[in-house]
Amino acid sequence: MRSVDPLALRTAFLYRVSRQVTKAGHVHFHLGMRRTCRQGNRYAVPGFLVGQKVELRHDPFDLREIEVWFNGQCLAQADLVHLQASTQPGVTPDPTPPPLAPLASIGATISPCSAWSGSACCASNCRPSRSPA
Prior knowledge:
Layout: H1 6-12, E1 15-20, E2 26-29, E3 41-44, E4 53-59, E5 62-70, E6 73-77, E7 79-82, E8 108-110, E9 128-130
Antiparallel strand pairs: 1-4, 2-3, 3-7, 4-5, 5-6, 8-9
């Protein structure tokens, strides 16, 4: 099995939207609001892109950083001008697993192993053992 580069994996799962760069060199990210209003997040992009249609790639859980793509190439990180929402509406993070129960609550005890030297223990010899009922 081959491992995957974490950066390549992150890039593969970024959301993508197209926006036209305004005369002021900004792109607006409306987050589900009407396009005619100028609310939402606003980002500055390189000036030579004025009037061009660009692709914005972003993590829906962190809208503070957005990549600007043009003609299939990543040109820059957009500079945040106005942040109204830091996450995309409608997305929910994966639920966090509940914390593990302490061993004492399931009737297990930890027996010191024979290799314990006072400051370190041989992990291969340490095993939880069932306490007598």
